[in-house]
Amino acid sequence: MYKHKLSPAAILFAAGLALSASAAAQTTPTFSKDIAPLFNKDCASCHRSGEIAPMSLLTYEQARPWAKSIKARVASGQMPPWQSDDPHGTFLNDRRLSDAEKSLIVRWVDAGAPKGNPKDLPPVPKFPEGWQIGKPDAVFSMDKPYEVPATGVVEYQYFTVPSNFTEDKWIQAIEVRAGARSVVHHILVYAKDPAYKGPRRDSFTVAVPDMSKMQRPAGAGRGPQRPLTPEEQIKRDPGILVGMMAPGTNPMVFKSGTAMKIPAGSLLTFQIHYTVNGKTPVTDQSSVGMIFAKTPPVQEVRDTYFANPTLVLPAGAPDTAIPSAIVFTEDSHITGMVPHTHLRGRTWEDRLVYPDGRTQVILSVPTYDFNWQTLYEFATPLAVPKGTRLETVAHYDNSPNNKSNPDATKEVHWGDQTFEEMQFTALLYTVDKAPSPAAQNASGGGGQ
Asked: 209 with 392: CB under 8 angstroms?
């Protein structure tokens, strides 16, 4: 029988193909070995049952149906959500994947999203039921549920809960959770000292806008200024801001040696912005959880805000810049900030102007997304000497080209509702001095 004899070159070529196939098989990413650890590290905090993401990615069976969608959103940078283009390492909570991690996910999907050897699977991460910060030392909830109607406009609602703290508390972590996320636009939680005599004096003055020319209190809508009733005063001035929640915001966890103070006997007030779903009434009962500092802090973290409630967006205008600015009156450090607009906000930039004239852009958001309200936590707190000016500029698109625009034919002013607008910055900072000795009482009971 005639047998074909392969040439040495053909043999080498065939061997090369076999080795290439073997190498390709070895380098094909699998869910069990390559993707699950990545999802656990970067995605599971949101992509699990009960959290903000629409699906869980904790198991292969949960992730596999979404493979093509995951690839598209990871490749485009839509996921994980992160709007700042500042360099990696600027922010402690930067969600962005590295180029190598993105490539790994793309190659996994392109290979058919194989499961791999189940023995390679890492343990499924364990999360405290209902909380990202861990089990809270104290949880406070609205006294009773509130029914959000199916239609109409719901004014801001305020719910007050006693803290029952018998001594001052230093808070290491705080998380605000919506009871019915589908109808909660945002929550701000305030703490009011029983000895309250007026707003806390922040370590800065507002430079823009000129507050002496204000015709109405911030957030009061477009009506003329008038004396507030006692009930309105409580609503307008509920104390110091201690916690916040909006779509995409992460809980506040403070570095060791820093904490936020809530005075003994404080009343906690939930300011909640509800949005109707247009279909059925929904019941909400939101909560806030706190973890206490184990030792007195070296620095007190202050949670506050500044805004420009004088904003005006002309009808149809595609690009309107709205500034605001503050000047620090004490040597301080900025630890985090949240830029906030509504549906017409498009870009955001924060810049420090130091007393010696130097300038530094500290936050650049070229693609602001109303659906992801990010708390940007600086990896290294930013030193702001007394006299430093913090300038922020937001750009708005009130034109028909903005697909999110509720009505391009209307001039837009400051307002609470989503169809109105805001230019608002939540700010976390410390003052360069230790808390007073009288305040160094940081542990013990209280709460409910």
From this structure: no
User: Do the beta carbons of residue 63 and residue 39 sit within 8 Å?
Assistant: yes
- CA 164-167-169 angle, 5° bins: 90
Q: At how many degrees (to 10) do helices 67-76 and 99-110 cross? A: 150
User: Is 376 strand, coil or helix?
Assistant: strand
Inter-CA distances, 161 with 140, 144, 164, Å: 7, 10, 9
Going along the chain from its start, the domains and CATH numbers come out as 28-120 (no CATH), 138-439 (2.60.120.230)
Residue 91 has what DSSP assignment? B
If you count them, how many residues does the chain have? 448
Residue type, 333: H
The span from the CA of 241 to the CA of 303, in Å, is: 6
User: 293 with 171: CB under 8 angstroms?
Assistant: yes
Contacts (Cβ under 8 Å, ≥6 apart) of 253: 133, 172, 173
User: Which residues, other chains included, contact 415 with Cβ-Cβ below 8 Å and sequence gap of 6+?
Assistant: 221, 222, 421, 422
Nearest to 94 by CA among 78, 81, 103: 81
Give the residue carrying structure tokens 């602001």: 368
The dihedrals phi and psi of 326, each to the nearest 5 degrees, come to -130, 160
Note whether 395 and 347 are within 8 A (CB).
yes
Q: Which residues contact 51 (CB under 8 A, 6 or more apart)?
A: 45
Return the SS3 of 393.
strand
188-220 burial string, b = 16+ CB within 10 Å, else e? bbbbbbeebeeeeebbbebbbbeeeeeeeebbb
Tens of pLDDT along the chain (448 residues) come to: 444 455 554 444 444 444 444 444 458 999 989 988 888 888 877 787 767 777 888 888 998 999 899 889 888 888 888 889 998 889 988 888 888 988 999 999 999 989 989 898 888 887 767 788 989 999 999 999 999 999 999 999 999 999 999 999 999 999 999 999 889 999 999 999 887 776 778 999 999 997 655 544 444 343 344 555 655 665 567 889 999 998 878 899 999 999 999 999 999 999 999 999 999 999 999 999 999 999 989 999 999 999 999 999 999 999 999 999 999 999 999 999 999 999 999 999 999 999 999 999 999 999 999 988 899 999 999 999 999 999 999 999 999 999 999 999 999 999 999 999 999 999 999 999 755 544 444 433 333 3
